[in-house]
Amino acid sequence: MVVVSAVTANSKPVRQSITGRKVTASPKERLNIKALSSGGGGEVKLSKKAEARRLLNEDLASLSLGVFHDLNNLMGIVMTNLSEAARQGSVRDKMELHVDQAMAAAQQARSFITETMRLAHDVPIQRELANMANVIRETARVSQSGSGIHLHLHIPKNLWYSVVNPTHINQVLQNLILNGIQAMENKGYMDVFARNVVIADKHRVLLSGPHVEVLVRDRGCGMEADLLQLIFREPFSTKPNGNGIGLTTCKRIIAQHQGHIEIASAPGLGTEVTFWLPATVKSAAKILPKKKHALKVGTGTVLVVDDEAHLRKLMLTVLKQCGYDLHEVGSGEEAVSLYEQLLKEDKNLVVVMDLSLKGELCGEATLHKIKALHPGAKVIAASGGLVSESRQSYLKKGFVDILPKPFMPADIADVVHRTLG
Fold first, then answer.
1. Are 169 and 214 in contact (CB under 8 A)?
2. Are residues 133 and 112 in the same domain?
3. Selection from 25, 57, 76, 61 nearest residue 383 by Cα
4. Which strand (E) or helix (H) includes residue 164?
5. Same structural domain for residues 109 and 171?
6. In terms of residue numbers, what domain contains 406?
7. What is the CATH number of the domain that holds 359?
8. What is the pTM of this model?
9. 302: phi then psi, degrees, rounded to nearest 5
10. How far is the C-alpha of 228 from the C-alpha of 233, rounded, in Å?
């Protein structure tokens, strides 16, 4: 919640939330904002402490975007290698289960990073009508893989749908399941229950109407009652190296979805965490196995430009299967020079270029040089700092499409096929 301190007519400090609700603010919570009345412009002057905090937040946001970019590059390597491993001939059947589980985990990690990047870019949270049975099953499968825990799932066939951000709900479930696994020292049995419930009018916390209820139960060490009062406060954690961010994140996400989360625990018996989400009275469809689509093939020339040699190699590995004539360089300067040569040989040419190239020419500067040679040049922007909502802004800059990293083999095959026609 965004909170701004102010001073009322009777000089009492209040805290004004974005919903307009006013509550008393402690001196520590006040930002010491002073309105300047001269000129009637409503100008606001921040205190030195608040200004320092603002600058720090900007620095952290900038640093986070850089970290996300690098993490996305690493995830791209993991995901592409896993995908290629799953395609390997006779050994495929033996390793497919482990590869699929690793791939699912990598895809969830990519989703978490992408959602966090959307927040950093101030992109509104996206929600969709989600099959909650699918969301729960997939998250449980990934979260328990590689552990010694046996996870019992109890999900009715007619579990209702909810309008949610699936990635955020994955994040909640993963936190709860991993907490249970750690509390049980990686052995034993856990339960994940889900059911449809209808909340009556005037409930103490929930909106009335249909809800999906999800319960995660472990049989770990449990907690004393006094610790439960602190469990959703961020600095607090029962783990030696914990920071308490996991459960506070869960509470925030569920609240954003107009739901509610509760925890019950007893020493020596274990812990139960239950949350509720508003639902639509629609039964879950039959869960079908995901189809693995073949890569789209085509003709033409592709120039891959990336200063990371291993990323270039992975892209070339995928595109080679698609039938293209391939070339690679590691800098913007080399890209401009080679593009001029290739243009003489094949007009059906596309460039897949990383935006954060090292050297004198970054991605956008290289685009301008290439456009000077050929105004109709087809250049795809690739970066770990992109989200799908960035597409329109990059089209205006002259790119023909974007390729957010990390990408699956089908992602790069599709965007190149779509561009070359």
1. no
2. no
3. 76
4. strand 160-164
5. no
6. 301-420
7. 3.40.50.2300
8. 0.53
9. -125, 125
10. 10
